[in-house]
User: Fold these one by one.
Assistant:
Number 1:
Amino acid sequence: MEGSNDLDAVRTNLQDGIVSSSVQVAALSRSFGEIKAVDEISFEVGEAEIFGFLGPNGAGKTTTISMLCTLLRPTSGRATIGGYEIVDDPEGVRREIGIVFQDSTVDERLTARENLVFHGELFGMARNDIRPRAEQLLDRVGLLGRADDAVITFSGGMRRRLEVARGLMHWPSVLFLDEPTVGLDPQTRRSIWAYARSLRDTEGVTIFLTTHYMDEAEACDRVAIMDHGKIVAIDTPERLKARLGGDLVSLSGPDNEALAREVRDSFEIDPRFENNAVEFNIERGGDFIPILLNRIQGEVRSVGIRPPTLEDVFVSMTGHQIREAEASEEDKLRSMHQRGFGRRGG
Amino acid sequence: MTADQATAEVGKHSEIGSTRRSTGRASFLQVVRVIWLREILIYVRDRPRMISAFAMPVLMLVLFGEGLGNSIATLPGDISYRQFFFPGMVAMQVLMSSVFSGVSIVTDRQFGFLREILVAPVSRTAICFGKIVGGATLALANGLVMFAIAPLLGIDISLEIVAKLIGLIALVSFMLTGVGVAMGSRLRSVESFQMLSQVAIMPGMFLSGIFFPVNNLPVWMDVLVKVNPVTYAVAPIREIALSKQLSELPADAPFQITHVDWFGYTLSTWEELGIVVIFGVAMLTIAIRGVRTVD
């Protein structure tokens, strides 16, 4: 079977550090008319890993998640979750996964506990398991005290926590979080993350999330950077940043051109012009700056140094910034298509 | 699942966390039950909706029963208009309650909760049945409440007759809820659902014999009344509700006031019920198809 060969090929490319994988994706694609929202992506996610999809709106993250959650049929390619293939056995996949959607899907007229119990019954959990499990999860997300209040009285952060708890009710092996902290204040975002981590540790669940926040991507075990429907890089945040070759040094003066020339000639570094400054990456930038300033003749008015961020990785991989990408016309169209067709029953 | 498979399943999970257990698969009836239960729970908590649901027909009965009743003098025998109208009012209550219950799919969609249901590993047909049984239960309850207040309204009806009517009203509720769910699964806003259900309910109500006997009408109206499926639901309810009064009618009554006439052929209660069942199955099919393709 051709499809399983694809998966075998991916398996041999296993990233080191992954013991066994819970999500395997091989050449998965989805087109909306002419637009390739997701273009032949392949990757694996390990068990109990926190895996992040980083990219601008319209990069294809939600489309990918929709396909993996069996809500959207792929145009081509294969993917398995917990051993179940998304097209061949959507029901098997649905039992293996928990989903927290970008928009709230709790019933605000029911209480927190009722939302969980309803979910447990819908997923065919044993009657004896449902109430203890709901109790346990409400406790873990810090909502036990409000368990019997109608959800309509909950704040945005509490609702999101409730959704995380609900997503875990039926002991899924993978929890999908689509932009889990959009619209939440920084403190609530941090608390959601703390809960997600502790749940990963106690439940042993794989967490698969999409985000366009850099700090959120930094907190993942591994990150796939997505742009225009393709995965442009996939690795741990540390290694992705290490690819840039050290700290980011920026230098500016009255004549940036001359400064760049000097840097090039004296240190065999090829600097870039960015934000009205001369920029380059170098290992241990702090040690380098005194040497640099000693050697350079031209006038320097300011020197900046900072460790590289995933934003820098994104820029170097794609040639543009995340915010710029969000404004581009084709992507607007792409996300329009997502909103229009991003859901499918099955 | 065999014992071995079950052990393997538990074993697989216990590698990861001792708390994990295998989940089974919810049976068709379990899914129907949980969806049904939620519909009831939400309804019972919505007091204003509950109260207005039965205030409306009572108002109608009192206002129409008195106002209209005094000017209608064509009912044969000793049957008062109020007595005649009462079973129609029960049918009206069931009609409105059933069709409106379909709005729950639309609100579920609007609040996002529909996705929670749709991503569960359960059959869409079971979801649809749950919705229909839930809506039908509420409609039945609303219909039966009318009997509880019947004595206060001066209606002559025995418990025995009410008992006979329960099954019939349940059937009618089921059939008409199918209409609501079929609509709800295809509409995206509560506003459009409300508009469309008004458009569906109004003619369904006025051309069904709820307010007047279905025979002895002008031809154009006669045709409309007889293609209206609600007519065949109202008639048997009234036949049973008025069975005592009808049996006391003089043999030379100018026309019979309950059974539907087809070009001189009078349908029996069972034939009318047959039409209700056929329509109900058709609506159910359309509703299931709607829920299966809902996204």
Number 2:
Amino acid sequence: MPPPAFAQETQTLEEVQVSAFRRLRDTGVQQVTLDTTVLHRNVALSMSEILTQHSTLFVKTYGRATESTAEFRGTSPSHTQVLWNGMKINSPMLGTVDFSNIPAYFVDKANLLYGASSLTLTGGGLGGAVDMSTLPQFNQGCLLQYIQGVGSFKTYDQYLRFTYGGERWSSSTRAVYSTSANDFKYTNYDKIGRPRERNKSGYFDDVHVMQDLYYNSPQKGRFALMAWYSYSLRGLPFLSVDYKNDTDFRNEHLQNTLRAVSSWDKTFERWSLSVKGGYAYGDMDYDYSTTRSGTQTNITKSQTHSQQGYVQANADWMPRDNWLLTANASACYNHVNSKDRSPFHIGNNYNLGRMEYTMSISAKWRPYKGLSFSTILREECYKRNFVPVIPALFAEYALASRPLKKSGTFRSLFKASVARNYRYPSMDDLYYKPGGNPALRPEKGVTYDGGIECRVQQKAYSVKANLSAFDSYITDWILWTPNAKGYWQPSNLKKVHSYGMELTLTSEVRIKRDWRFSVMGNYAYTPSVNKSDRQTVNDASYGKQLVYVPRHTANFLGTLSWKTWTLQYQWVFYSERFTTTSNEVSYITGRLKPYYMNNVSLEKTFQWRKVHASLKGVVNNILGLEYVTVLSRPMAGRNVEFFLEIRPQWKKSVSPLP
Amino acid sequence: MLLAALVLSAACSDSESGMEPEEFGELGRGVIILCEGNFNAGNSTLSYYNPETREVENGVFRRANGGARLGDTGQSVSIHDGVAYVAMENSGVIWALDTATFKVKGKLEAGDTEHMINPRYIHFVSDGKAYVTDLYSPYITVFNPKTMQYVGSIPTRQEASGGYASTEEMHRWGNRVFVNCWSYSNKILVVDITKDEVTDEIVLDSWQPKSMVMDRRGKLWVVTDGGYSTGEDAFGDNVPHLYRIDAETLEVEQDQTLDVDEANVQLVVNPDSTWLYLINNDIYRMSITAPHVPVRPFIEAERGADGRRHYLYGIGVNPRNGELYVADAVDYRQSGVVYRYTAEGVLVDKFRVGITPNGFAFQ
């Protein structure tokens, strides 16, 4: 919850301004920064909803607490690299991240790095990278925050946070508990007579606890420790065309995850050092069983245990004010034990470990004021396989920077980049039995980016716009296809050409003394076209848009504030998505119609001497649209949730929690 | 802007508009083609092909039934007494359709029975009794195809905990119905139709018996896919076998290995059950008296520029004239293609149907 909303949004733009115009480190980088104003808008939101509503990424999901993957620029979910406090958290098995399992309230800052820009952090992001981090709260005193949410379909969200921020120490403890029967009613158009049915087996029970601790010493540098544990039990909803009784079956995921990162940073006059270490543990059980025949029969009982150890060192050196040299090295060990204990599966899937190494060097140079260049060379290795050197080149030029009337400013900036990138296969790709293909090659990508960023700042309003275009080619795209024996196999099948443009616009207006208005909008045009050789003469997929990738995505958030009242309207749009590789529309199931979503919220804050509080009501899908985002997966109609937030005020509290 | 977005959203709701049931008129003696669709996508469809006019109607179930969908993962279609029965595996339902209109006459849901989970194939023992095999249930479900009422279940006596519970195709000889257990198994079960119970079983040397036919002499031909072998912990050796088993003595009389590759293997017989047609990458024709499968294929699968064969995913023989219908799944994610050949293997027609065509039924 973001009261007072406007003040914090102003902070956001300042941060973007600094990173866009001043930092040599970010030369030529195409990125969007989401801060707590966006991330902590609603405790019921996961990063899945945040990315859907505030970015041009396409998030494929079929409801709250269901697997949600995010794609940049028409690539695949495994082409999105995801970092949490510097540690890569993509599943070593699948290469993807389930964003529905990341509560947005656990993230204080998220950078979305598009295309080549992801190489400033990591390799393998053929689409881009999402970099999430927590932030310390130095000098904030003691802060306590509790939010209780109650919503439709027996949904309850609880959030508790305690923070202490002193001059040197900062500690934050957060916990989220979300549970729901999620048994919304819908009209089942896929069955004869269009019966009203309930969403079967869609329940969820998620618990997250996070602790972060910082110690800041002018002499010794900054030490940090972040740990995050999550437990998630989720039913997998039945298809709209399923005629079985859900009471006869258990179809659920149980997941336990622990992630921990410690770091040390020290900045000197001309150089800085950073060392990180991380550990992640995950176990995931998928259980599909029935008691139909009197005894329990496990149809699928897969169990996966994974462990990850990670170390990284980074050094920055500024020999002159216009030069920045960086060296980075990291090593990561992944171990996965994947098995299926159902009677219908014999043998383990695999039980293996894999070392992964990365080294990179980069140089940033500003020859003239307003003009800067950056280059990165990255080398990656998995097991004993070296991928070719990954190069990237960035350029940035300040087109204009001039004052306006009434103390205003206008700035515009041109950015461009070109990069080659590789993503090596995930462990499932290589080793999963049956189907894994040890002969897979890394996927290759070449991407070109260019864009203009403009900003107008006046006393009464500000506008920031970013327009970028990209052109990207991916070859040896790894694709899992079913084989004649009934299981799936990956191969380096595809060539894909994706291109298009992205537009981001944010604006804030102070209408009168107590009235403020802000808008944030995103639009992307993303043709992502299959250019693979035809498999056979019957293959009609050449030149067609990839399955489930919309050509157009757009979203809009409008916020109107009056004194202690805040009204928000959220609109999200995805254009039609094809469900076949040949983009056939002759089938009713061949495409999903355009998707529009409208959400509205109203919030009132109270500021008493001893306590600050707020009441918030959210109406999702306010028009009650009946829709699907994935075939045969109905979505909830109009639904509501109410939130009560309480923040006791102590003497040392300097400002409310974001 | 807000108003515009709201209006646009309201105008473009994703809710399905009403779809009026479509009348197909006089359909003639055509071919019903089941298209499996993609697992968990619910996009299985039925197509209808008129061999006389060479016209194809796709998505006939949905069109005839007011927009309702056939379901998820259609496994088999068979016609009995003017009614088409479609087993929808992952939907857990069997549809009974009028073959003249494709309108639903009845259905048997998993919940109507005691043990049915994922129905695979249907065998009509009599006008009032049919068996249903199942991918997961250790029971064969018995129902009355006239009333679509559940009758009972036959325990397969395959311990689920031992990994054997799947049952697949069925063929009859006398009072015996032979049932192959495909998934992680190497057995053929023998069901006595007078007792509705499993009375015997045949254990094969090769894993995963995939498809069977009965020839006119009472010889059961069984093709296995050999399981899979992708490294350690392999299940089977990936080598398909073709067996000939005597339906009276239950003895294996002939056993030969087939091409390995990634072949889908499937068997059908010609109308008088004297020739076998086998999909094993290409299509082979073999006399029931021949000692082995011919070296040269009867019909070669088309190949792409890189030499990759088409994915032949299903085969059917028209009992009226012996014409062959062969399904190509292409990439499994686009509309499949059906080839129609004469009994002598001459291409007559080629047409697009739904996703992953796998089965044929002839009116």
